[in-house]
Amino acid sequence: MIYFDNAATTYPKPMGVSAAVVNTLITPFGNAGRGAHAAALQAADAVFEARKALSDLFGLSDERRVVFAKNATEALNLAILGVLGNRRGKARVVTSVLEHNSVLRPLYHLERCGKIKLSFFVPSEEPEVCEKNFRACVSSGVDFVVLTACANTTGLSLPLGILSDIAHAAGALVLVDAAQAAGHQKLTFSSCRADYVCVPAHKGLYGITGLGALLVGKRSPVPSPLLFGGAGFDSQSREMPNELPERLEAGTVPIHASSALCAGIGFVESRGVEQIGERVAALSDAFRAGLLDMGFSVYSPRGAVMTLFNVDDLQSADVAERLDEKGICVRAGYHCAPLAHAFLGTHKRGALRASFGAFNTFEEVESALSALHHLYRT
Question: Does residue 72 sit in the same domain as residue 168?
Answer without folding.
Answer: yes
